[in-house]
Structure formats: structure tokens, C-alpha cells
């Protein structure tokens, strides 16, 4: 599950393309399948979205929630890929992008009526 926050007027016009960019990075770095896209966009009013100095109204926060098991180098590669491709495809400077990866143990995930540690038919690898 990926949550993306930004100022409504900046985020809404780009969210479809940003979703494509994020998913493309998830596929290329993590090996996620095409149909494994769970993105939630949270456009906010400017007066409700406080961000650090030195950033523009394009400031965008991307929270990536995933099952634990990814190697540190894999996670760093994902973050760097996102910075690069978002800048290239959407002209958002890396200073205006904040990315966090939040890992939870497989038993803390619930989907398709079971927990993540019970599932045995994923079409992608968790430990990469």
C-alpha cells in the first residue's frame, strides 16, 4: 500500500502519471507484478499541508508500506529510482520529494482473508 500526499492543485493533475511512475519503479526494482498496484492519493488543501522550508508547492510525500524482508540495498535502490524517475517524468525536484518505507512483519498484514505469513501464492518475492 502506497500513500501519496500533496497540495491538491499540484497533486491532482499528475496523480495518474505519478502512479505509473511509482508502479514502474516498484516493478523494476522489486519485481512487483503489473496487477499489484495499491496507491492512495491524498490531495490536501494548502493550509492543511505543512512542509519544511526550502520546498515548493510541488512538495510530495510518498509513504510505502510493505512486508518486511527487503534488503537495505534494495530499499535504497527503490528510493533512488523514485527520485530519478519522478524528476525526469514529472519535473519535480528531489528536494520536493519525501519518501518513507514502512515495513511490517508478514503476520501484521491481512489480505484475501489471511495474514501475510500464511499466504503461499504471491506472484512476487518479498525477500529481495
Automatic annotation (TrEMBL):
Superkingdom in the source lineage: Bacteria
InterPro entries referenced in this protein's UniProt entry, alphabetically: Tauto_MSAD, Tautomerase/MIF_sf
Pfam families: Tautomerase_2
The name this protein goes by in its record: Tautomerase family protein
PANTHER family reported for this sequence: TAUTOMERASE YOLI-RELATED (PTHR38460)
Organism taxonomic ancestry: Bacteria, Pseudomonadati, Pseudomonadota, Gammaproteobacteria, Alteromonadales
Amino acid at each position: 500500500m502506497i500513500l501519496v500526499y500533496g497540495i491538491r492543485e499540484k497533486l491532482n493533475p499528475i496523480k495518474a502519471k505519478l502512479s505509473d511512475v511509482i508502479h514502474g519503479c516498484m516493478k523494476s526494482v522489486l519485481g512487483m507484478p503489473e496487477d499489484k498496484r495499491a496507491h492512495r492519493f491524498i490531495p490536501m488543501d494548502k493550509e492543511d499541508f505543512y512542509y519544511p522550508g526550502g520546498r515548493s508547492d510541488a512538495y510530495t510525500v510518498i509513504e510505502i508500506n510493505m512486508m518486511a524482508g527487503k534488503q537495505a540495498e534494495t530499499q535504497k535502490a527503490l528510493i533512488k529510482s523514485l527520485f530519478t524517475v519522478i524528476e525526469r517524468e514529472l519535473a519535480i525536484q528531489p528536494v520536493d520529494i519525501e519518501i518513507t518505507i514502512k515495513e511490517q512483519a508478514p503476520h501484521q498484514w491481512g489480505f484475501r482473508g489471511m495474514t501475510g505469513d500464511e499466504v503461499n501464492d504471491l506472484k512476487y518475492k518479498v525477500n529481495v
